[in-house]
Write a structure and sequence with these properties.
Helix 3 (about 55-60) packs across helix 6 (about 90-110). The two termini are about 25 Å apart. The model has no long low-confidence stretch (mean pLDDT about 95). With about 180 residues, the protein is mostly helical. The chain has eleven helices and no strands. The chain has helices at about 10-15, 35-50, 55-60, 65-70, 75-90, 90-110, 110-115, 120-125, 135-140, 145-160, 175-180. It binds fe (ii) ion. Fe (ii) ion (FE2) binds near residues 38, 63, 64 and 157.
Length: about 180
Amino acid sequence: MDRVRVSTVDELMELLSDCEDVWDMPDRSGDPVDILDHDRQCAELLRERFPDDEQLQVAGLVHDIGHMLVPGDDAGHGRHGADAVRDLLGDRVARLVELHVTAKRYLAATDSVHTAALSESSRRTLIAQGGPMTTTEIAEFEADPDFHAALALRKADDAGKVIDLRVSALPAWRPVIERVAAAR
Ligand SMILES: [Fe+2]
């Protein structure tokens, strides 16, 4: 299912709800929560830390739909997700979705404590995603206007893998998605 473009909030809600029982690794060798759980945990963490940045929260909510759109393409999942939501949610949200993979490469190069705490699956996929950033890439990323937001999304991403954690149900996010889509 390549080149999916989500054009309405209804379509996005349906796509997200279809992420129940979809896993980052189709053979279940990856994270211990499904994509819908994981994306909701990630969005919730971002809402707690950045209550005024709804674009960032929504980026967290959709950041891993690329796994669902193109199963098994871990290295490309950020881009697939970004391409799918750009028309509906705007360039910044799409960019933050894509950057969650970039930010992982940044942290792998700059934060040994964070890297040591990565889930086993996350560590395995790092190499396919390009491995730790080079010095030049680090400088470029740090100069990006969305550097801090992208890093926050990545940290929420790494933390949002708790089995049976209770977070807001998907429909509670609909008004937030609608606001972000309306303001794009
Ligand atoms: Fe994720």
